[in-house]
Design a protein that fits this description.
The chain folds into two domains: about 425 residues, Up-down Bundle (Growth Hormone, Chain: A), CATH 1.20.1250; about 80 residues, Glutaredoxin. The protein is an all-alpha fold. The chain has 25 helices and four strands. Strand 1, helix 19 and strand 2 form a beta-alpha-beta unit. It starts with 6 loop residues before the first helix and ends in an 11-residue tail after the last helix. Helices cover about 70% and strands about 5% of the residues.
């Protein structure tokens, strides 16, 4: 890790940035907002994209495939971190993250032009996934470059504050994408939006790309990197130094397991999983769920700056660890309260309706299916899959050997055939027992962006706001911490890999994995154990082993 703060650095504490340095922070942050906007468009429109590009599959499988195509971009992020991190440490910060934004922007624009599966068949989802992979590779190089660039321009004692502006970009990018989606949906109408209007936000990204490129072309190279190059102290083999030498590789592992792993799952739970939970499990319409998330982000985004600045005073580690622990302890109660406000009929049914699948254990398999490729044919599996897709809480009960599968609702057996024919009798019985129909009037609905004073709407926004605050606690200080853990000559490479494994793999795989857990257990809250376990693991590892970094000298 870098050396402790020098006397010269201490004397500069409290001094503000120059005009040029402020431009660096603003320009880097704006460019990264546009990149996250590009990336989040897909996540916000996953259900529509699933219908457009995976139409050959049943609706439940489409959703899984759409989420997996979304996750594909996250899976390759660590590889982008390695490729672009090496280039950034060898060539420079500025030109590397200029290249990444061009790749990202063009990939997103092409999605807006891509014919769907009904037009070009299997080629459509293949090209879509290739574009997602290109976006993921670019994003793998983007964050490390932007965070390193801003940190190396920041005055000593203020790195947490200034790099926290980079941290706001992910949330602001999501917020911008939601606003444009909502505006486009309102202008085109729901039917037209699902048919062709969803392409407009992707096509508009070319304008954002042009603005970002112009802004970044005006930036100069990082002074810390430039000084290092002039003194001939750069690394000729940043990958080897970063990962093949135990002294630095150990810090990479600690950064991942004791910091970014928990940060990643808390972040994706608070923003992405909350959105998918509202739409796919609570059956809240897309317009309303996007508005709810947008309001929570609007209210909570400023806390990135608050916690970033606070980390300059009390340290990065206490804030990140506290965020992981508090989130882990409260995720399940918060999501239960979201359910009771967003879909009270479903909440009551979960508490009061007892649903059982009674079947010969030999005829029941494992429903855990995060990649969406398994095909279920056994009646027991089909019955449980039907119930999970209907957001029904159920338990599996062993029946006599060779007995047929039964669905029992409040002690009453319901006629059941299998999902290949019709589940209408079972569905009718569930609704008679108290489970709501799709579009039930008790499900929360916003007809206008300003419908925030309805009691249930205000309550949901408040709960989502709490989740966003958790995100800001773990994410606000993380860029400064990662920059401070590694020396200049290998900083871009070393910090990028743990960040993108923690966020790309542990975080990016969260929605598909959590939904698979829900389907396999029959409990709509079971998927939350995924982020809870990893957040607790990070709290334990980070508290014991992760060093505090706020006072290090990053010019070494």
């Amino acid at each position: 890790m870098a050396a402790t703060t020098t006397t010269a650095e201490v004397s500069r504490r409290g001094q503000g940035m120059t005009k040029d340095e402020r431009f660096v922070v603003v320009a880097s942050s704006l460019g990264t907002v546009f990149e996250w906007y590009d990336f989040y468009l897909y996540g916000s429109l996953a259900a529509i994209i699933g219908a457009q590009f995976f139409s050959a599959y049943p609706p439940g499988t489409r959703d899984i495939f759409a989420l997996l195509a979304f996750a594909a971009g996250f899976l390759v992020r660590p590889f982008g971190a390695i490729v672009f991190g090496r280039v950034g440490d060898l060539v420079g910060r500025k030109y590397t993250f200029l290249v990444t934004i061009v790749i990202m922007g063009l990939s997103t624009f092409i999605v807006g032009l891509l014919p769907n599966a009904a037009t070009i068949g299997i080629a459509a989802p293949i090209i879509l996934i290739v574009l997602r992979l290109a976006q993921g590779l670019a994003l793998g190089g983007e964050y490390g470059g932007a965070a390193t660039y801003v940190a190396e321009h920041s005055p000593p004692g203020r790195r947490g504050y200034y790099t926290s502006y980079i941290q706001t970009t992910a949330t602001l990018g999501l917020f911008l994408s939601l606003l444009i989606i909502l505006f486009t949906r309102t202008i085109t109408g729901e039917d037209a939006f699902r048919e062709w209007g969803w392409r407009i936000p992707f096509l508009l990204s070319i304008i954002l790309l042009g603005i970002s490129v112009v802004i970044r072309l005006k930036l100069n190279e990082s002074p810390v990197f430039q000084k290092m190059k002039e003194e001939g102290k750069g690394s000729s083999a940043p990958l080897t130094e970063s990962f093949a030498r135990w002294g630095n590789a150990k810090i990479v592992l600690l950064a991942l397991l004791g910091g970014v792993m928990g940060q990643g799952v808390v972040w994706y739970t608070g923003q992405f999983y909350a959105l998918f939970f509202l739409q796919s499990i609570l059956k809240v319409d897309i317009y309303t769920s996007n508005l709810l998330i947008a309001w929570s982000l609007l209210l909570g985004t400023g806390f990135f700056i608050v916690f970033g600045a606070l980390s300059d005073r009390i340290g990065r580690k206490p804030i990140i660890m506290a965020g992981c622990l508090i989130a882990a302890l409260t995720f399940i109660p918060i999501f239960k309260m979201i359910t009771s406000n967003a879909n009270p009929a479903l909440n009551n049914a979960i508490e009061n309706v007892k649903v059982q699948v009674v079947a010969d254990p030999k005829g029941c398999g494992d429903l855990f299916n995060p990649v969406g490729t398994r095909v279920f044919s056994a009646p027991c599996d089909l019955a449980r899959a039907f119930l999970s897709q209907s957001s029904v809480k159920y338990e599996t009960v062993a029946g006599p050997a060779g007995s047929p599968t039964k669905i029992v609702i409040n002690g009453k057996e319901v006629p059941y055939t299998n999902a290949a024919t019709s589940n209408a009798p079972a569905l009718a019985a569930l609704q008679e027992a108290g489970y709501p129909k799709t579009g039930d009037p008790s499900i929360v609905k916003m007809d206008h962006p300003l419908d925030v004073f309805k009691p249930n709407v205000a309550a949901i926004i408040g709960l989502l706001f709490v989740l966003v605050v958790y995100v800001t606690m773990v994410y606000g200080p993380i860029a400064a911490m990662l920059v401070e853990l590694f020396p200049t000559r290998i900083r871009y490479t070393s910090m990028s890999l743990p960040y993108h494994i923690g966020n790309g793999w542990f975080g990016g795989l969260l929605p598909a994995t959590a939904f698979a857990i829900v389907a396999s257990t029959g409990d709509i809250y079971a998927g939350l154990w995924y982020p809870i376990i990893f957040a607790v693991a990070t709290f334990i590892i980070g508290t014991i082993f992760l060093p505090e970094t706020k006072d290090v000298d990053i010019t070494k």
